[in-house]
Design a protein that fits this description.
This protein is an alpha/beta fold. Helices cover 38% and strands 23% of the residues. The structure holds adenosine-5'-triphosphate (ATP). It holds the Pfam family ABC_tran.
Length: 295
């Protein structure tokens, strides 16, 4: 090996690392969120390419929402670095962060947060207001996208839970976000409405939208291309449901998610392995198969 080779190698390595971070929509490096003695998220590294559908699973209190809030620029990590579209969030000021929230991210929550005295279309137009473009036709188009044009002038109280969640998705779509972050989006829905919402996510994913969903629900998680599992803020498992997506991710230089924290059960990048989620028993297996056949 010539004396120059190590330099060449390190230049190539940094080039690879750069192209990896450029091709990734989201890049978390050693991210922690610490409250006193509690590490809600503990030294987590994760990359998500544009167009991926990722599920974050784990028991209550494992750090899922905390992580989601950090990714959605609603909260800042105590340590580590987060990049979205190649921009380091820690380098942005408050108004630049607000722009990222507005223009890159669409948020969907378990609790719908609809304004009760406004109709469906007006609720969508509230979101437009924050984008300084109030356009009823565009709001109606967003409702049409979620199959609710005929419910546009109904109040939330006149809509089913599933319909209310679809209004929320229409509201999240108003800025054509690259990234949809959904926190337990089907948590309040029955199976039928859960399937409608999942079909919508499937459609958005096919159109190229990146989706990150926090869920307790086995069916919702298994619709994603990849699942990561947290426990006490650390990564305890990573599982690909879509081998093609995995191969593509690896070809782009994507690495397994990892936790640096030395905690029992935690997985470093080299060791990351599939997890067995006890909640993935038979509950939804039948309906999943059916849902896939209908897709
Ligand atoms: N603002 C806060 N101050 C102190 N502790 C917090 C705060 N927010 C969250 N935590 C703690 O951080 C841990 C992770 O909370 P988080 O809400 O992220 O969990 P989760 O996995 O989303 O739980 P669930 O599934 O019940 O919603 C919990 O122990 C929680 O009590």
């Amino acid at each position: 090996m010539s004396a120059a080779e190590p330099h060449i190698k390190s230049a190539q390595q940094s080039e690879n690392a750069m192209s990896e971070s450029q091709s990734m929509l989201l890049n978390l490096e050693h991210v922690s969120k610490i409250y006193g003695d509690l590490h809600a998220v503990d030294d987590l590294s994760l990359t998500v390419p544009e167009g991926e559908w990722l599920a974050i699973v784990g028991s209550s209190g494992s750090g899922k929402t905390t992580l989601m809030n950090i990714i959605g620029c609603l909260d800042a990590p105590s340590k580590g670095s987060v990049s979205l579209e190649g921009r380091k969030l820690e380098d942005l000021n408050a108004s630049q962060l607000a722009d990222v929230r507005k223009n890159v991210v669409g948020l969907v929550f378990q609790k719908f947060y609809l304004v009760p005295h406004l109709t469906a279309v007006e609720n969508v137009m509230v979101a437009q207001y924050y984008h300084s473009v109030v356009d009823e036709q565009q709001a109606l188009d967003a409702l049409e996208q979620v199959g609710l044009k005929d419910r546009a002038h109904h109040l939330p109280s006149q809509l089913s839970g599933g319909e209310q969640q679809r209004v929320c998705i229409a509201r999240a779509l108003i800025n054509c976000p690259k990234l949809i972050l959904a926190d337990e989006p089907t948590g309040n829905l029955d199976e039928k409405n859960e399937r409608i919402v999942l079909d919508l996510f499937r459609k958005l994913h096919e159109q190229g939208t990146t989706i990150i969903v926090v869920t307790h629900d086995a069916l919702v998680a298994s619709c994603a291309q990849r699942e990561i599992m947290l426990n006490h803020g650390v990564l305890v498992g990573e599982k690909w449901n879509d081998e093609n997506a995995k191969a593509e991710y690896e070809a782009q230089g994507g690495k397994p998610a990892s936790t640096g924290a030395q905690v029992e059960g935690a997985q470093s990048g080299d060791e990351a392995k599939d997890f067995v989620d006890p909640t993935k028993a038979a509950k939804h297996r039948g309906s999943l198969e059916e849902g896939r056949h209908n897709a």
